[in-house]
Specification:
- The chain is of the alpha+beta class.
- The chain folds into two domains: 100 residues, no CATH class; 92 residues, no CATH class.
- Helices cover 30% and strands 23% of the residues.
- It contains six helices and ten strands, in the order H-H-H-E-E-E-E-E-H-E-E-E-E-E-H-H.
- The strands form three sheets. It has a four-stranded antiparallel β-sheet with strand order 1-10-3-4, with no helix packed on it. Strands 2-8-7-5 form a four-stranded mixed β-sheet, with no helix packed on it. Strands 6-9 form a two-stranded parallel ribbon.
- A hairpin with a 2-residue loop joins strand 3 and strand 4.
- Helix 1 packs across helix 5.
- The longest helix has 16 residues.
- It is elongated.
- About 5% of the residues have low confidence.
Length: 243
């Protein structure tokens, strides 16, 4: 991730200077100072949300706690959740001793399971459906799991620099929002620009997470040599039974 030079107010003032609109300046920065209700502040925050949802590697990866109990196998995701780090749920406990990374599965996989069974155990997989995450099998006891995920950006403070690969992209986005507001550009021009820049950022590799140095095998299908079947203590995890 590249480090930005421009703060929130730097970005907005540069963009408003480019728009060069007395009407917008009177609304957003009367007397030359940005006001909390400025349209450009909302435009920038909305733009950051758009970029983070479509290009989550441009944002911040963080952790959240998930409480898994015997009463349900489905819990709500954090409100700022964008996307999980693949296989990004981990259960680590000392009593009983557990150090397990859960496998992310698809909804199709979940639907293929036997929904009439009542299998319980230590969760070994999870499926994200909307704003919830479902773990499999049903927890046999209470667990505290850690979820690694990409988050939406918090509202920026005036002198805060956004966590984003290229601040000039943000300046141009707000500039185009301003030009659309004054009627000098067609509505939707800023969104079209954002989509084009998301493609460029993906191709450039800027802001993407570090790649692994070896191609990993699917841990649900390939097991270490000599480990035997999934129940063998040498394997990293137990097989996930049908529901």
């Amino acid at each position: 991730m590249s480090n930005n030079r421009l703060s929130r107010n730097d970005i907005l003032n540069d963009a408003l200077d480019m728009v060069d609109s007395q009407a917008l300046d009177l609304k957003d920065r009367p007397g030359g100072t940005l006001v909390p209700a400025a349209l450009s502040i909302r435009w920038l925050q909305r733009g950051l949300d758009i970029f983070h949802r479509a290009f989550p590697w441009s944002g911040t990866i963080t952790t959240g706690s998930l409480s898994l109990t015997t009463s349900t196998n489905t819990v709500a995701l954090p409100s700022d959740f964008v996307m999980d780090k693949r296989d990004g749920i981990k259960i680590v406990q000392t009593s009983p001793a557990i150090n397990r990374r859960l496998l992310r599965k698809s909804l199709d996989w979940l639907l293929d399971q036997n929904a009439t069974a009542t299998a319980t155990g230590e969760p070994g997989a999870y499926v994200i459906i909307g704003t919830n995450v479902t773990v499999v099998p049903w927890p046999k006891t209470s667990y505290t799991a850690t979820l690694w995920y990409y988050k939406l950006p918090a509202a920026l403070a005036p002198n805060e620099r956004p966590n984003f690969p290229d601040d000039e992209v943000l300046v141009e986005y707000v500039h185009l929002c301003g030009k659309a507001w004054t009627g000098e550009k067609e509505p939707g021009v800023a969104m079209a620009y954002a989509k084009a820049m998301i493609d460029q950022l993906r191709k450039s590799g800027i802001g993407e997470e570090s790649e692994v140095d070896a191609l990993p095998l699917d841990r649900d299908r390939f097991r270490p040599s000599g480990s035997g079947w999934a129940s063998d203590a040498g394997w990293m995890g137990d097989a996930v039974p049908n529901l």
